[in-house]
Amino acid sequence: MGREQPQQQAQPPSQMSYTVEQLVALNPYNPDILPDLENYVNEQVSSQTYSLDANLCLLRLYQFEPERMSTQIVARILVKALMAMPAPDFSLCLFLIPERVQMEEQFKTLIILSHYLETARFRQFWDEAAKSRHIVEVVPGFEQAIQAYAIHVLSLTYQKVPRPVLAEVANSGWILEKVHGRGHQLIVLPRNEFNHPEVKKSAGESVPLDHITHVRLTYAPAMPATL
Amino acid sequence: MASTYDYEDTANHQSQQTDIGYDPNFVPDSVKSFVVHLYRHIREKNVYEIHQMYEGSFQTLSDRMFKESPWPSVDAISQYVDQDHVFCLLYQEMWFRHLYARVSPTLKQRIDSWDNYCSLFSVVLHGVVNMQLPSQWLWDMVDEFVYQFQSFCQYRAKMKNKTEQEIVLLKQFDQAWNVYGVLNFLQALVEKSQIIHILEQEKEGLEQFTATDGYDYNGGSNVLKVLGYFSMVGLLRVHCLLGDYETGLKCLLPIDISRQGVYTSVIGSHITTIYHYGFANLMLRRYTDAIREFNKILLYIYKTKQYYQKSPQYEQILKKNEQMYALLALSLSLCPQVKLVEETVNSQLREKYGEKMTRMQRHDEEAFALYDELFSYACPKFITPSPPVFEERLVNYNQDAYRLQLKLFLYEVKQQQSLAGVRTFLKVYSTISVGKLASYMEVDEPTLRTILMTYKHKTHAVDPDGKVISTADVDFFLDDDMIRVIESKPAKQYGDYFLRQIVKLEGVITDMDRIKLE
Questions:
Q1: Angle at Cα B138 formed by Cα B324 and Cα B387, nearest 5°?
Q2: In degrees to the nearest 10, what's the CA dihedral of B474, B478, B484, B487?
Q3: How confident is the model at residue B12 (pLDDT cuts 50, 70, 90)?
Q4: Alpha-carbon span B133 to B93, nearest angstrom
Q5: Is B408 on the interface with A (CB under 8 A)?
Q6: B499 — contact with chain A (CB < 8 Å)?
Q7: A209 pLDDT band (50/70/90 cuts)?
Q8: Beta-carbon neighbour count of residue B8 at 10 Å?
Q9: Least confident window among A216-225, B119-128, B407-416, B440-449
């Protein structure tokens, strides 16, 4: 859930990312591309873009040659994966990281943060994130991405959410300010098929046209010209 | 043949190789006759006969004369087949496969088998092969290739009891069964065969592949194309062994598993494909996709396994069948969408795992032990692809990969612990206040709100295109502090009904046409 922002690099990043993506698609099992993939992670961080495929490719190469693993890069990949929630990217990355690496302090913290997000414990999440600024603030756009995830979960769940709940989940102080003396207020969330069942398009099974034409062709033109 | 092994790769019925009684240069008459005929059939591209000999005669001779010893060496038989280089590579491939199945291979033999695959695949990749081989054999090659890789990684990771000699060999032949080599061979077969392009062209009607079961009726060879095709399944399998489920599924994408295809033409390939597809989806939390595919294949096996009773694949089919029931039990415990399961499959499932599933849904300590048990029984044999660090203390690290995947799976199960409780209440109430439900569940209100949001998050998977799909069997939404349960009426299936009636009508009209009126 990263957002694009204008970048100030010498080489237009879009050109670099095109080449790396090509490498990942055409020649992924190649130890020589490891430095390119590492640079690409840093580029994703600074330009607020994201590529799961490239990052998985790198984690695989680290698996094949553990002595070349950079825990700093891995940490960045994990933060980016957290920002991709609700997609399960964080778990996908963990599957590829050896257990003993996951025992290191910074990874333990990231796993706890992921756990809080997966179980919708937003208040604990923001508390813990505040304590671990050095890990998460390395990646610009982190707070906005998590807020977007929080809003996503809220809009799946609530038609109308109490303002304090929204403020806590989204970690947004300014929402709480408005509550002063006005008592309990409700925010109405955008309608979607998950919080408004009537909006849900009918499960509608669609019958593709070629199923019917196929049936007709099986029984060759048998209809007489006149009935 | 590739998997009558338990996790530790030491099946009890295997014997160690002894020099007593095995003379690699002795060629019994039946073997001489076998290779002469097989060679002729291959030259004459008589696929039917090749298949009979490959599936039938080879098994019979193995059972009769080579129950616990290898076949005669390739050097001994090459004189009967004009020293044909390619035939010798094929013979060696069968030779090693037989070895792995009956006798425990030595390190040197593992390395030699790798060399043989390199030579064989190189010949195929150079495009100079003009044979037509049965799909069964081509599938077995890829399947065995991946299996021997997996076996090698397991073997190499058990460093504790390695002899000096073995360590020297391992250091010397560090390219053998190297993970880059394995992956790049599979990738090369996919690319050189242009199979992805062929499959796409086939959709437009510009190519024939599935329709001919991969065989080439224009005088060409099916070997590269079909090996390329099966290599996609091979890649899925290797990626699952590494724990990279997302990429594994990507490798399988060109094959449309909602339809028949060349992958269903060989039972082993069909089962391996769906087993790994289902497992990958289970780990990706796409439970309904896993359930649907397991359901389909378990039903298929139920109906067809009688036809394979005499086949060498029978044991393997049964084993995978049991494992997939276990995976289905896991999937359904995490995502109770029972209506996705066919009646026959469901009753088999109840018989095998009914009681365990009830206990698993309680999400207590005992439940976790059961999740552990089923997962460990049914999971692939994960590997650590990197070679050992010889300078460090020699330990066994062959279980590391499995332990990590198990730990992460159980972690996910734990996160879903509270969901079962919510589900029970939602099934009973149409509306209930947050306060009331919180007191029933013996938690405070803020905790209940997080549980409800967790339920929503866990039951709404994000598909590869970023779309949100609900896998919830019972759903709700919150209106401030009232929980309103969403009624889900199963959609009436009109489409099927209409199609059936159309077919019936056509039938009647055809019949009427046949009536000759005086």
A1: 70
A2: -40
A3: very low
A4: 14
A5: yes
A6: yes
A7: low
A8: 11
A9: A216-225
A202 has a pLDDT exceeding 60: no
Cβ atoms of residues B249 and B257 within 8 Å: no
Q: Check pLDDT > 80 for residue B286.
A: yes
Please give the Cα distance from A10 to B263 (Å, whole number).
49
Measured CA to CA, the distance from residue B192 to residue B140 in angstroms comes to: 20
**Residues of chain B contacting residue A222, judged by C-beta atoms under 8 Å apart:** 506, 509-510, 513
Q: What count of other Cβ atoms lies within 10 Å of the Cβ of residue A179? A: 14
Both structure tokens of B135: 């799909």
In which residue are the tokens 């098929």 written? A193
Q: Mean pLDDT throughout A51-58?
A: 96
**Which residue of chain B is at minimal alpha-carbon distance from A157?**
B477
Q: Do B408 and B375 meet the contact criterion of CB atoms below 8 Å apart?
A: no
DSSP A166-199: HHHHHT-HHHHHTTTTT-S-EEEPPP-TTT-GGG
Tokens of residue B193, six digits: 């065969």
Q: Is B44 exposed, middle or buried (0-12, 13-18, 19+ CB in 10 A)?
A: exposed
Give phi and psi for B461, each to the nearest 5. -80, 155
Of all residues in chain B, the one with the smallest CA distance to A212 is B499
What's the CA gap between A190 and B433, in Å, rounded?
Answer: 22
* Distance (Å, whole) CA B414 – CA B334: 11
- List, for residues A168-195, the tens digit of each pLDDT value: 887 765 454 444 334 456 777 766 767 7
Nearest Cα residue in chain B from A187: B480
Give the other-Cβ count within 10 Å of B269's Cβ: 24
**Positive/negative CA dihedral, A37, A41, A46, A51:** positive
Task: Using pLDDT thresholds of 50, 70 and 90, give the confidence band for residue A6.
Answer: very low
Residue of B192, B186, B287 lying closest to B241 (CA atoms): B186
Percent of chain B scored above 70 by pLDDT?
94
- Comparing C-alpha atoms, which of B465, B471, B457 is closest to residue B331? B471
| DSSP string covering B448-477 | HHHHHHHHHHHTEEE-TTS-EEE--SSEEE
Shortest Cα–Cα distance, B465 to chain A (Å): 11
Q: Burial code of B496-511, b = ≥16 C-beta within 10 A, e = fewer?
A: eeeeeeeeeebeeeee
Which value, to the nearest 10 degrees, does the dihedral of the CA atoms of residues B430, B435, B440, B441 take?
Answer: 100
Q: Which two tokens stand for residue B229?
A: 């095709």
Terminal CA-CA length for chain A = 62
Residue B106 pLDDT more than 80? yes
C-beta neighbour count of B304 within 10 angstroms:
12
In the numeric block, the tokens 């649907």 are attached to: B292
**Between the CA of residue A74 and those of A42, A70, B171, B256, B400, what are the distances in Å?**
11, 6, 29, 34, 19
Judge: B478–A194 Cβ closer than 8 Å, yes or no.
Answer: no
CB contact under 8 A, B385 and A63: yes
Question: Where in B147-270 does DSSP place strands (E)?
Answer: none
ipTM of model: 0.87
B415 near A118, Cβ under 8 Å? yes
Assigned token pair, B120: 């064989």
Residue B505 touches chain A, beta carbons under 8 Å: no
Which residue, chain included where needed, has tokens 């709940």?
A: A165
Residue A161 has pLDDT above 60, yes or no: yes
Q: Which of B452, B495, B496 sits opposite A157 (nearest CB)?
A: B452
The one-letter code for the residue type at B279 is: F
**Cβ pair B456:A156 closer than 8 A:** yes
Shortest Cα–Cα distance, B246 to chain A (Å): 7
Side-chain-side CA neighbours of residue B229 (13 Å): 28
| Nearest residue, CB atoms, B491 vs list A119, A122, A205 | A205
